[in-house]
Design brief:
- It contains three helices and eight strands.
- With 152 residues, the protein is α/β, with parallel strands linked by helices.
- The strands form two sheets. A four-stranded mixed beta sheet has the order 4-1-6-5, sandwiched between helices. A four-stranded mixed beta sheet has the order 7-2-3-8.
Length: 152
């Protein structure tokens, strides 16, 4: 698998129009429970719900970044063996106008029912794909990640 910088460069070369847009590289988790729901978070001061995760630190792999972010944001500890990589997806960034977000996405199944938000996370919900939406979903979540759950 190519690293995130190589991937972003390839995207800009493929879609020349993206050269004026900034790319945000993240690792994100689709956390599911036995009822088919997925965990969504909303960052403090924002409107959009999305999968938990975040930006890797310099030299950090997507796996390591996601494990660190889940611990920091939700006090949720997972091992690398629990992460099932499902792909890399790119869409408009929800909270940063003029930016794209490119996410290495991992699936995590859990029996845990309660999550406590910490750091920049203001709200955590369980979301059933297809439910009546009274919430705003981030483009990456709505267009790429939730459709993946149809096959889970």
């Amino acid at each position: 698998m190519q690293n995130s910088l190589e991937y972003a460069t390839a995207l800009v070369q493929k879609w020349g129009i993206l050269s004026a847009m900034k790319m945000i590289i993240i690792a994100a988790a689709i956390i599911t429970d036995s009822q088919g729901r997925c965990l969504l978070v909303r960052k403090r001061g924002t409107e959009y719900f999305m999968q938990p995760g975040g930006k890797p630190e310099i030299g950090e792999t997507p796996h390591a970044a996601l494990i660190r972010e889940l611990e920091e944001e939700l006090n949720f500890s997972v091992s690398p063996e629990e992460l099932v990589q499902v792909g890399r997806f790119t869409d408009a960034a929800a909270n940063e106008p003029g930016h794209l977000v490119s996410a290495d996405v991992f699936l995590i199944a859990t029996n845990r029912v309660s999550f406590t938000p910490t750091m920049e996370i203001e709200e955590v919900i369980w979301f059933t794909p297809g439910q009546d939406r009274h919430i705003k979903l981030a483009p990456l979540t709505e267009n790429h990640q939730l459709p993946l759950l149809k096959g889970v």
